[in-house]
Amino acid sequence: MAAKDERVRRLIYILEHTSSWVSSTALARALGTSERTVRNYIAEINRSGRHHVESSKEGYRLKSTSSATQDRPATFEAFQDTPSAVCEHNATCSTALLPNRIEAHAAPAAKNTSDARRDYVISKLINEHAPVSIFDVASALHVSESTLSNSVLPQVRKLIAPFNLALECHDFQLQLTGREHDKRRLLGNLAIRNASGYFTSTDTLKSLFPAFDVEGILNKLVEICQRSELIINNYALNNLLIHILVIIIRLQSNNELSEREDSTDVDALVASFSQGEAILKCANDVAHYFETEFGCPIPANDFQQIVLLIALSVERYSYDELTFDKLANLTGYPFMDHIINIAHETADRYGIARFDDAFMLQLVLHMYNVYQRAIYRVSYPNPLALQIKTDYAPVYDMAVYFAHRFSGAFDASISEDEIAFIAFHIGAYLERTATPDGKATAVVIVEQYHDFAQQLVTDLEEALSDELSVIAVMSCDAFLSSPPGADLVITTIDVPVRCGIKVLIGPILNKQNLRKIRDKLALVLESKRRGRAHRFLKQVLRRELYVRNMQLSGGPDAYIDYLGSLCKARGFVDDAFVRDVHLRERVSSTAFTDCLAIPHSIDSFAGNSFIAVLHNDAAIPWGRHNVNFVLLIGIAEGDMGYFRDTLDIIIELFSSVDATIRLLQTDSFDEFLEAFTGDL
Question: Could you tell me the Gene Ontology terms of the biological process aspect for this record (predicted)?
Answer without folding.
Answer: regulation of DNA-templated transcription
